[in-house]
Structure formats: C-alpha cells, structure tokens
C-alpha cells in the first residue's frame, strides 16, 4: 500500500528514491534462521512461500515501472549480515551513500532553481503557494516602482531638503541609527519628494544595493494592513539578498513578523549589503494591530540599512513617532513652495499639456496658489486653468483659495454640465457603476485629471483620487441606518465570521468599537467584548479558522445573555445554534455559557510567544505593564490598547524581578544569572547592565527590587538546610548615567532568632545579634 501511494498513484512523477538489495545465492549453512531479519519465515523456521511470492511480484513490478529511480545492488552476506570490515561490503555501503547524496542533491537543486549571481534563485520551496506569493510580490514591486518613476518627474525645487536627507543617510552608514522621518501638512508633496529621492538613490548607491519603496496611499483602494506590508517587504528583501523568507507563522502572527523584520535588517547588515526601505504615508495604514502606534517600527537601525518614512504632521502616527524617537529624532519638514517655485511648476505643467495662458491668467493662478504654497492645490488649479481660452471672461476665472474649495468648484461645474444624479452616482460607486459608454466617456474626459488607475491583488481599477471607499459598517453607521446595522452586521454571525476570517478579528473589534461610540448600544458592546475574549484563540488559528469553532466559542460566551438581550445577541446565538445543528461534520454544541462571558471580571487576555510569566510590575498612571518570563524575555505591554510594545531579550534563563522606574521611561530586570539591566521603555533598547547584582545559581524563594531617590536595593531570601533562612542583600547606587555596585552584604537567620550580617565583598563578619 505504501508503494502504491508513493510510486504508482495517479501515474504521477515519483518523488521517492528506490534502493533494492539482492542476495544472489543463499548457501546451505546460511539457512532461514540466520536470514530471518532479511526474509519472512514461518513459526516452523521455514521460508514463507506466500511472502516470497508476493516479494517476487513486487520486485518484478518495480523493475518494470521504476527504472528512473531504481538503485539495484547485489551483495553476498557474511554470516547472514553486512560486515563493514569486509572490502566488498564497505564498497557496497559507500556506493549507497554516494548515490543517496548525489540524487538528493540533484533533486534539491531542481527544487530551488539554478544559481543566479552566485546564489540560488529561489530561497524557498517550489510549491504553488510560494509561486503565487512570488508573482504577487514581483507585480507589487513593479507597480510601486513604476508609480515612483512617474511621480518623481513632477518634483520642482526641494533641492536643499533632498541634500539634507542624503547627507544624513551617508553619515549614518557605519553606525546604528534611527529612522528618518519626512513630514508635512497634506498636499505638500511628501510622496513626490520620496519618489524623487528613490530615483536619486538608485543612481548613487552601488549595484548590489537593495531599494524597497511602498507608496501606502497611492496604490491601495483600501488602507493597507501592516502585516501585509511587512510580509511583502520581507519577501522582496529576502529574495534580493538570498535570505530565508518569513515562515508561515510570521505571515499570521504580528509579533513574529515584527521580530522577523528586525532580524532581517540585522542579517542584511551583516552581509555588508546596502538596503534602503522607503515607506510613504504611514498614517494611511489600517487600524489592525494598532499600526498607528508604530510599535512595529524599529528604532535601532543597523549599519548599511536605511529606513525612511513619511507621514502627515497632524496625524496620530506623527505624534507617536515623536514620542517614540524623542530628542534623537531625524525630522525633515516639507515646507510650502515659494512663489517662483510655483511658477516653475506651472510652466512645466503647461508645456507637458501643450497649453499656455495669458499673463493675466498666470497671475491669477499664482496669486491663488500663493495662499497655500501647496503643490496639490496648484495641480488642481492648473487642471481647471488649462481649459481656459484666451478670451475667457475674467469673471469666470474663479479659483478656490484652498484645495477643498477647488474640488468643490470642480464638482459643482460637473453637476451643472452632466447632471447632479450622474456625477454623484458615478463618483459614489465608480468601480461598479454601469453607464452608457457615451455618457461615461464624456464624464471620464472631464475627470481625467482626478481619476487614476490603481493596482491591487493583480487587478487594475479606476479610482477617484480624492475619495476612499469605506466598509459597510462605516456607511450604515454614518447614514443613520442603525437598525439595519444591528441586524445585518452586528447581529449576523456569518458577517462576523467572514470579516474575522478575511480581515482579522481586530478589524471587527475596531468596527464594533466605532459603532458603540456612536450608538451607545449595550448589545454592541457585549458582542465586541465577546470577540475581545475570543481574540487570543482566533489569532492562533489565523487564516485557518474553522467556522464551527468560531460559532461554538461565540455561543459558549453569549448563550446565557440571549434571553436578556434578544434583539442582537439572541439573534446571534440562534444563528450559531442553527448552523451547528445543520453542520455535516460532528461538532460539539454548547448548551450553556461555560466560557467567560463578556461583562464579567475577565476583560482581556494578553498573549505572547515566550515562556511563562514569573514576575510583573504595573504603572497605572501611564497604562504600562512589564512582565518577566522563564525564558529571559521582558515584555512591555500597553494596557490602553492591549498591545505588546516590546519583547526585550535578556540573558538565557529566568527573569526573577522587574521594576518600572523614573517616571515610567525605564525599567529594571533582575535575571537568574544575577545580572541587573536597565531598559528604555521608549526605544526598547538595553541601556546598562551590571553583573552579579543578585544571587546567581538556583532560583531563590523570593526576589525583590526596591528603589528610593538615590539607592536601589536588590534583595532575596532562600531557605537552606538546618531550618536556616539566608537573606542575600545587595545595594547599588543609582544616578542618571549608570548603575554602580555600592555594597554587598548577607543576612543569615537561625531558628532560635539570632542572626549575623556578613560583608561579602571582603568575606568579613560585620556583626551578629543574639536575642
């Protein structure tokens, strides 16, 4: 049966290697008993004739059908066995090993592809999923590169700012550094600046350099998920640098993907290659995994690796970036264009459009632009102005004083020309609208400067570049269709499952949170809290979430509330139970709420991929939780958004105690090897370490860290033989720059109440007390 499955099933190309050993002659003295481990014998110690017949038939079929993978060997046994000391037997074993190594090497090379530039073309298996990921990533890279090339042509001026950024990049080549941040108000040309910088760096960097650019606002009809962005970048860099791509776990686990991204940067740096990653418009990232908090963004960039990001100055992402980087931040503001720079942009635009304006019309354009200095504002003005004729009355030369006013004027003119219903209907569902070709052609011509082709998942679509499509909950919520929202979205088990499966449960929780804030509906809050309680298990299952498991857990958490809250929760429980009753496969159907239900004591479960928690410290004022684990990881959590901020790897072994200090900007950790470390809670970096600050060796019964204004006390006690308790006390002097060992004493307590204190540094008894 195993041969049937591995060699002959469906006449497919065999993936096995076949080795057959024949014993040409069997001497009389080598009877069946001696050859029992090579042949089937009966209980009477005779050859099993039926088994021999089946074996002969099997070998005949193998010889006839599997010649390509057959390795046939004939060897005489010595005393019924193989003796490596015999020459012919040693040659036989060497031959098998050489054949196996050679044939396996050939198959592995065929799977990973030929050598290209001194490395294997593929760094992962040639499965269909790998090929799909590769094709998708290559197409995405091509689209972003093409868009960057196109947008870079629109840049005028900014030479000084480009020079400052380039100098900062070169100065950080050989040292660890932080990311570079480009920021400005909306419409000031951050994207165009980064695209121009990409073109400049392609010419300046060496041939082996790897350049990655992602325009997060330009090429996505919807806001991109940070996991998808990081996964795409990791695939591109790994392919370019010959590194192993992220494992399947990293694709679904946000924390693992963050770790892989940071480690990948270190690997590229160690290779000596140059890597430049440019991420534009971070504020456009979706809310999943609290991407705007920027916990995923590394602050310690290794040599030869550069990370350049841009964001809106008024965005939450920029505020978090300034808090994250502090005084060491490399910030570059894109300021408004000057009058003469605007004039250069205007002349270039008119030449490219093969149009011109009168002197009066040019002055009107520049005066309107002068109010904002915004390149986007100027582009919209020129889009309207190029339709003017030289004899257009001055009264009609009306331009908005801001980007919003220009767009409003454009839409009003379109409604006057084409009709309000046509324009509003087309722009409302421009991707799906079916219009008569002639009407669509006329409207498309007038809108051509405001329409753009965008690429997503291999499909090219037309989008209106000033409007973002929102998801169903958003539309129903802001349209005031709250009852429909409750019935069709919040109260639909199928919608909750599908959205969680496709977009992640964090996205559903975010939707329900927004609904609760507007509607103040207690049932919406309870459904949201139920999904929060379910999130740890759903995150583990990720894209492999089974519908029966989702419905079972939802029912097990909400069933006791269904009679009290009939409208939404009762409907949800009924849907889950009906689906489970009709399920074709055996499932367990909850009959009561045996899991923690929402609204109870348990509010949230924090999970992280490291060992069990041994110690913790909480700062309620700033909503921070620090834990120490059995495998040496110090985890820093934000209790406000329930997200893991940092997983700080300490020495191998357990973390015995942690302490948040200095206005919650730093924390201390004491490890089982006796080392004491200070960590920054802003950057996630280790600042200081002193060895032998605590007892090393077997874990003590209790360990404590106590901090005063000037002193840090590290003390522990351990139960020892004879009923004695040993108190081990170290005192360290704390100042703003270092931890310095100040005093080391031990205290030994005896059952009769007396104790003595020893100065351990000099092994000197200080004093003893007898009651």
Helix and strand layout, with pairings?
Layout lengths: L1 H7 L9 E5 L26 H17 L4 E5 L12 H26 L2 E2 L2 E2 L7 H25 L6 H13 L8 E5 L5 H15 L5 E6 L10 H16 L6 H5 L1 H18 L3 E6 L24 E8 L3 H10 L4 E4 L5 H15 L5 H12 L4 H11 L17 H16 L1 H9 L8 H10 L4 E6 L2 E6 L7 H7 L3 H9 L2 H11 L1 H15 L2 H20 L5 H12 L7 H17 L30 E7 L4 E6 L3 E6 L4 E7 L5 E7 L4 E6 L4 E5 L5 E5 L11 E6 L3 E9 L5 E10 L4 E11 L5 E5 L4 E6 L2
Parallel strand pairs: 1-2, 5-8, 5-9, 6-7, 7-8
Antiparallel strand pairs: 3-4, 10-11, 12-13, 13-14, 14-15, 16-17, 17-18, 18-19, 20-21, 21-22, 22-23, 23-24, 24-25
Describe what you observe in this structure.
This protein is α+β, with helices and mostly antiparallel strands and 771 residues long. 41% of the residues lie in helices and 20% in strands. The strands form seven sheets. A six-stranded antiparallel β-sheet has the order 20-21-22-23-24-25, with no helix packed on it. A hairpin with a 3-residue loop joins strand 13 and strand 14 (633-638). Helix 4 (128-152) packs across helix 6. The longest helix has 26 residues, at 87-112. The model is unreliable at 115-127, 456-460, 465-470, 731-737 and 762-767 (pLDDT under 50).
